[in-house]
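call fold(seq) -> tokens
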Amino acid sequence: MKLDRIQIDPERMNGQPTIRNLRLTVRRVIELVALYADRNELFQEYPELEDEDIQQALTFAALSLDDKVIELTPDVAA
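ret:
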């Protein structure tokens, strides 16, 4: 599994994983994917991002998740 675009540097962005040494963290890229339903709009807003950046950010996030089951309680107000 290739994750060569993910970089972790304690001196950059408080040590958070970033994309290609840009000032975009993996977390921010995941947030952007969730916010922008249209990928073209995302790339217009963030032209420095590439498809492979997004793919590797998603892969990194998936690999970082714990397999622990978390019980969700129903929303009482609903």
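The first strand starts at residue 6 and ends at 7.
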